[in-house]
Specification:
single chain, mainly alpha, two-stranded antiparallel sheet, about 60% helix, elongated
Length: about 170
């Protein structure tokens, strides 16, 4: 959990109490008719609106953590501070992101965004490309009549005649 998330949650609660909106927020956030996902979205909407009113820009990547702090405030859990970046060392290769000495600084949130973009754009495009390629290959094979050139088992008449005339002259 990032300290930024805890600060966002604290600032949001203070703002709600100052604006006398805390009770309305609690009614919406704890509405039993909503699923956990829907309650997450409701709280996220409130936090997004709060962030837009603040002069100091809050880092959007930590809002989901602040939402979880608000959503699961009554649940027993142990909060552990953790860094969202990690220095990886000893990497081999010539990729542009690998720095000098085989070092790479992995930022969790940007990595998640890259993976999301990869799975929503690159993977479907590659699958579409493969599907198109298979269709074109099948059509081209049919056009060239490749099946006619594949070896086939000789009929017994041809085989017997071949043996009689070629092997036993």
């Amino acid at each position: 959990m990032q300290p930024t998330s805890r600060k966002d949650q604290k600032d949001f609660k203070e703002y709600l109490h100052a604006q006398k909106r805390a009770e309305l927020f609690l009614q919406e956030a704890s509405n039993p008719a909503f699923s956990t996902t829907e309650r997450f979205r409701v709280i996220r909407g409130w936090l997004d609106a709060f962030v837009k009113t603040q002069a100091a820009g809050t880092d959007d990547q930590y809002l989901d953590e602040a939402v979880c702090l608000l959503l699961f405030a009554d649940h027993p859990y142990k909060e552990r501070p953790a860094s969202d970046s990690l220095q990886l060392e000893g990497l081999k290769g010539t990729h542009a992101v690998i720095g000098e000495g085989g070092k790479y600084l992995l930022h969790f949130h940007s990595f998640q965004q890259k993976m999301q973009a990869y799975f929503t754009t690159t993977v479907p495009a590659f699958r579409s490309f493969n599907q198109e390629k298979e269709q074109l290959t099948a059509a081209y094979r049919q056009q060239l009549k490749i099946r006619e050139f594949e070896p086939k088992v000789l009929s017994s008449f041809v085989r017997n005649r071949l043996i009689s005339e070629v092997y036993f002259p």
